[in-house]
Structure formats: structure tokens, C-alpha cells
Amino acid sequence: MKIEIPRYIEVFGAAQINEVQRVYELDSGVTSEVPAENVGTVRDIGKDVMNDIEQRMAIVVSTKNEKLRLLDGVMSGIPHDCLIIVVSNSTRKPIDRYKNEMELVKQFNKFVQRKVIMIHQRDPGLAKALREVGYTDILQGRYVRNGKGEGALVGLVLAKLAKKDYVGFVDADNFIPGAVHEYVKNFNSGFSMASSPYSMVRISWLYKPTVIETGFYFSRWGRINEYTNKYLNRLISSHSGFGTEIIKTGNSGEYAMSMKLAELLAFSSGSSVDPYTMLNLLEAFGPSNPINNKEVREKGVQIYQIETRNPHIHVDKGDEHLANMLLSSIGIIYHSRICSDALRKVMIDELIASGLIKKGVTPPNPPTMRPTKNLNFKTLQEFLEINAKTLVTMGEASTQNQAPS
Amino acid sequence: MKIEIPRYIEVFGAAQINEVQRVYELDSGVTSEVPAENVGTVRDIGKDVMNDIEQRMAIVVSTKNEKLRLLDGVMSGIPHDCLIIVVSNSTRKPIDRYKNEMELVKQFNKFVQRKVIMIHQRDPGLAKALREVGYTDILQGRYVRNGKGEGALVGLVLAKLAKKDYVGFVDADNFIPGAVHEYVKNFNSGFSMASSPYSMVRISWLYKPTVIETGFYFSRWGRINEYTNKYLNRLISSHSGFGTEIIKTGNSGEYAMSMKLAELLAFSSGSSVDPYTMLNLLEAFGPSNPINNKEVREKGVQIYQIETRNPHIHVDKGDEHLANMLLSSIGIIYHSRICSDALRKVMIDELIASGLIKKGVTPPNPPTMRPTKNLNFKTLQEFLEINAKTLVTMGEASTQNQAPS
Fold it and tell me: B76 — phi, psi (to 5°)?
């Protein structure tokens, strides 16, 4: 892959946020060289580097009642050497969709023989194992809560058990396997550029409303992203005193982290998880917070934002879904401890003026879940192995990586 | 790439047509192994093999007034090591779109430094050079004729001058760079499976009318393809005596050939070129034709059809364009010397019954252009270098590959 080197970096405490980077070539081959005059502009990431990162990476695929064909396509796009972790929250009655997903994955894997871990988010055995290690943050009664953030966190925990160094998140509702393939390569490009072991890569979608006739959807999506980015940028400005537009990926649902960073971050519930991975990073490593971790203080946390070459074409979940996504994204910023009262007032005024919320309504405050670093993973694994009936491991995932089996 | 091995092969004289093959994984990494029980089912094509073929391959990108952004995207999807040959037939007045394309490509290439050759199809110097070597088949007065087939043939000639062993064709009107990337990998997969130096790989699109709301277009396209495939298959049946559905890629606009095969084939004018590359192969190497080339007789000609994982989303050229495409595709089969009178009658009856042509109308008979094998390429190159004012070479295309400069 050949990619632009970011020209501008915004520093916010220990966090270094890189400007959006453009992809020049999806595949830079083997004969490629970056000439001297472009060394400061272009980075060529070779296949060896990519392959090395892929072997150390888990890709968490969240799915909820998506068409099996889409899940199949997404898996075909993820480079073979990555561990795939499917976290499903599909309905199990009257039709057991999770069973169908398992059969699809098994059938697919008969031919590709890759490492796959699958689990159902509402498996009571999963909840039991998490309760056993005291991680009740994610629970609601006998189950893990419904929600995208909860699913992502389950995926993160499984990636940690599989001893992966990187974890990436992609949704199963993606029509373009080539786009999924590019996301993973973009993740790898970011990690290969990082000098700190604490790094995050977020995908900036190249969405083009005029491309296809579903323009309506794209522009709505753009609107949510616009607000989230604006408010995340104002959070930074309110501390630095300088306006910034550095954050362009507030609502990106496709991002990856080094495990060292991922386990230091809190996650939030539902669809607010996407902006919250960014927000919590600013909260935890921003200028107003004491940072206890010496390595983080010294090496910093690096965030890369990479603009895909492929458009993002996915299932239209409808207006209500989008409205919820907007409100929870705004809400998680509104209620952040690093959000000033002045910014809160601006947010409310703007959202009322644009008709996005009603007067007198306070944006929701989605629950958050503590960082997972200090969980007792050994105990968690033992309990998972015994109790989680929906847990499936394929390929050599169970043995080579010591994942639960 | 991990790909299904075709289970069924139809033999037609020296031609071996393989059943459509499915792609399992776009990227099979480096740790992948095909277990013993799948050796007969799955082929894993490693990056080394791919890289080797890419360095010997030219990809011809045909463009005609496409948005620059699309051309940019298509180039970003073609693996770096392939030579890109852009054959443009864009309008030059009142705005010189070719000039804009050249500027775009130069700008793009500043950062990626790849090998690119560009030419305008209506360059009088190009026509002059082709006339000089007696290849008047492609000319109309002072110019190369307008038409997709003519553009493809110009690309083939330039690929031959650049001493490439493989030549592939893709259109610039493709919204998914990842799909273009996959096409090239599919081409390479096919060539890596071929045991004969005479081979062709055709892309079978995974088009799904329900995927996006432009279903109408997709189904129309499906209809053209359905007729073309049906009649190509009947040509085969009428010789073998057995019904077949082996050909699924009659109208594929994305295909590649080994140079040894490409220079033995005639091309046809306009959009009939896509089915004609298949048809002419059946004409030239079918059972009713004496084959003079000893190597072809001994090794055969192998055709692979590979179903993409990515959907094909491109510019809707409108109904008239599609009607012309249908008629010229049908016409080129109708007028083929291997088409029997009985099949001609069936074709006409069916097309009238389905309202696709009017009674009493004979389908058009697009002009064809002789195989290029025996052209004097040395003279052609000399004349091109002197006369073709629109010819541009970038990167090391001109020196390392002895392409015209």
C-alpha cells in the first residue's frame, strides 16, 4: 500500500492526532520505490510488514441479523492471516440465526481453513464468565447487554485471550469485500507508521452521495459525522485555545487499536462506542488528566485517520437508527467530564436550532464500561471454556493462540 | 488469493473452457496452507506468483469522458507492478478532457512513480503509424475508428511494444477501486493455473439487483449477458451435440489474455469486442478450423471464468447504450461463420418474440480487425514515436520496457 504521510499533527496531552491520510495505491507491489523527493510525502508499506501485522491481529466482525451472504463476503475480504472473531447478536427465535451463521462460517472455513472464533453476545455462559471476574459493567441481569459497544468489548476480550497484539473492528453489513480488505490494509498501514505501542487507526470513509441513488442515506450519515466531529474538535479547541478540524472520523465504525491501547480504554454502550473510543482516548490521555502509565507518558498515543479508496456501501438501517446514533454520539460528548459547560450550551443550542433535538431534552448518557486491562483473563478463560455454549473456535485458533476452545 | 478449482471443463476443439470459479479469499496471506482433503477443490495462489505475473502484465484502461475521480480510483486499484496503459477517447473540444486526464495521471504519478503509457485514440499520428504497417482494419480516414474494440486494440499494441506477456482490460467507469484490484488478482489467479501459454481469464460479475436501489440497471445488464451467453453456448452445443451452460462471461468487459493468445485473436469494433474476444477464440480454435500453430494444437487454449467477490458498480450509460450493446453482441454471433442457419433463425425468432428487435431487421455486423501477430512492430514503434503527439510515457515505462517515448 502506498499512502500519504500526514502533514499536520494535533497534540492533545499525550495524544497525537494525525491529519487524514489519503491512499495512493491499494497494492504497491514489490518493485516499488519511493524516490528521494517524495520520502517526506509518501510511505510505501511493503507486503512483509503487512503480513507481520496481520498475523498479530484479530478482526472483530459484529453482526446482528445481517444476510448470511454479507457475512460471507466480509470474511472473504479479511486477509487470511488475521484471526476473525465473529460476535453475533442475531435473533435465535423463531429461527436460530446464530446457528445459521455458525454453519455458514464452518462451511466457508472448510475451504479456507482459517482461524475463527465465534460467540453469541447473549450467551449466558459469557455473562457468567464476565461476572466471575467482576466485570459487571457490561451485564444486564443474566446477560451481556445488547448493544454494539458491548459486542465490540466481547470481541476485544476474545482477541486478548487469543494473545493478539492488534484488534480491529468492522461491521458485517458491508456490501464490498474489497472495502473490508482495504480497511485491514489501512489499519496495518497506520500501525506500521506508529512509533508508539499505543496506537489507533480510524477509517475515514470516502462517501459520495452522487455515486449511487441512495444519496439520501449518505448525506444523512454525513450529517451525524459532521456534528460528532465538530464537537470532538471543539473539545480540543477549548483546551488548546486554537480552532481545529483535525478529527474527521468521530463516527467511524471501522477502527483498530494496538492491544496495549485497547485495554486502557473504556468502551461505551450501543452505537456511541464509535465516537467514544476517540473521546475516551482524549479523556484518558488529554492535557487535564494525570497519566500514570510511564510508557504512555514517554511514547504517547498515536491516532491515524486513513481515507479509504473504496466507498462504504452498507445496509440502510433507517431514520430511527440514525437518530439514535446521532443522539447517543452527541450525548457521550455532552456528558464527558472534559466537556465544558460553555460547549454543552453551544451544543444544545445548535441541536435545537437545527431541529435535531427538542427544547428541554438532555441528550442521553450511555453507560460506559471500564478498561479491561486488569481483568483476570486466566479465570475468565476458564469460565468461558466451561460455560459459553455458543463459543466456537475453528482452524488453529484454539491451540496456537491459546484461545478458549 | 484462495480460489475454487473448476470442476468441469468444456472442450471445443483446442479450446478448454473452464466452469466459473468462486473466490474464497481475496488475500490468502503467508501462513495459509491448503489441507490434503481440499487440494482437489481449492487453489491458494501466493503473493510471489501474483507479483511475478503483475510485473509482466499491462492493464489497459479505456476511458471516454469519465469523471477524473473515477480514473484516479481505478489507477489506485491496479497493483503497482502492472504497467497501466490509458487509452482515452475523451472529447478534446471545447474542453480538452484528454489534457485534464494527462494532468491527473501526471499528478497521481508524482507520488506513486509507476509505469504508465497514455494515448488518445483519435491521435492522427497513431493512425498514421498503424497505416504505415498496413493495419488499415482499425482506420477510418485519418483516424483510428471510434469504438471500444478499437481502443482495446490500441492498448494491446502498446502492451506488445512494452514487451508485456499479459494484457488485461478494465473500464475506467468503475466506482470501486477494490473491485479493480480484485479483477487484476483474478486475472493473475487464472494465469497461474494455466498450463498453456495461450490463456484467457474473464471476470464473471457478482451482480445483485437487490443490493442497491439501482436494481433496474443491473437486471437490464443481466438480460444482455443472458442472451449473449445463451447463443455462445448454443454455438458450442451445435457442434458437440450436447447442451451446455459453460459460458457465463460473454459480455464481460473485464478480461485478460496472455500476449501469445491476444496477438492471435481478431478484435471487433465497438462494444461487440467483449463477446467477440470469446467468440473469435471459438472460431479460431474450435473443432471446425484447421489450427496451423503447432504449440496451440499441442497445448490448447485455456479459458478461465472467475466470479468476483466485489459487486460491479459503474456509470449508467442509459438504455440506448444498452440496446446498442445488445444488438452488436447478438450481431457478432449471428454473423459468425461458425453460426449455423438454424441457430440464426432461432436467434431472430427469440429476439423478435421478446421485443428486442423488430421483424425484418437483421442484427448489425460490426467490422472486425485482423490478429496483430504479424504486424511490423519495429516500424510501428518508430512511426509512433515520431508522429503520435498524444503519446505520453511515465515512470520507467519508456526505458526499461522499450515502450515508445
Answer: -65, -20
Eight-state DSSP code of residue B162: T
Q: Please give the mean pLDDT across all residues of chain B.
A: 90
Given a contact cutoff of 8 angstroms between Cβ atoms, the answer to whether A165 and A83 are in contact is: no
Q: Which three cell numbers stand for residue A305?
A: 485517520
A33 interfaces chain B, CB cutoff of 8 Å: yes
Domain ranges of chain A: 2-213+245-270+277-317+372-394
Q: Given this model, what pLDDT does residue B208 score?
A: 43
Under an 8 A CB cutoff, do A79 and B27 touch?
yes
Tell whether B31 is within 8 A of chain A (Cβ).
yes
Helix (DSSP H) and strand (DSSP E) numbers for chain B: 14, 16
**What superfamily does domain A2-213+245-270+277-317+372-394 belong to in CATH?**
Spore Coat Polysaccharide Biosynthesis Protein SpsA; Chain A (3.90.550.10)
Is the pLDDT at A26 greater than 50? The verdict is yes
CB distance A88 to A63 below 8 Å: yes
Share of chain A above pLDDT 70, in %: 91
ipTM (interface predicted TM): 0.88
A window 281-320, beta carbon within 8 A of B: 309-311, 313
Side chain identity, residue B256? A
Q: Do residues B21 and B31 make contact, with C-beta atoms less than 8 angstroms apart? A: no
Chain B residues touching residue A310 (CB < 8 angstroms):
176-178
The count of other CB atoms within 10 Å of the CB of residue B231 is 26
Q: What is the pTM of this model?
A: 0.91
Determine the average pLDDT of the residues in A50-67: 96
Tell me: the pLDDT tens digits for A297-353?
999 999 999 999 988 776 666 667 777 788 889 999 999 999 999 999 999 998 888
On whether the CB atoms of residues B404 and B134 are closer than 8 A, the answer is: no
Nearest by CB to A178, which of B34, B178, B214? Answer: B178
Q: What is the mean pLDDT of residues A105-132?
A: 96
Provide the CA B145 distance to its chain's centre, in angstroms: 18
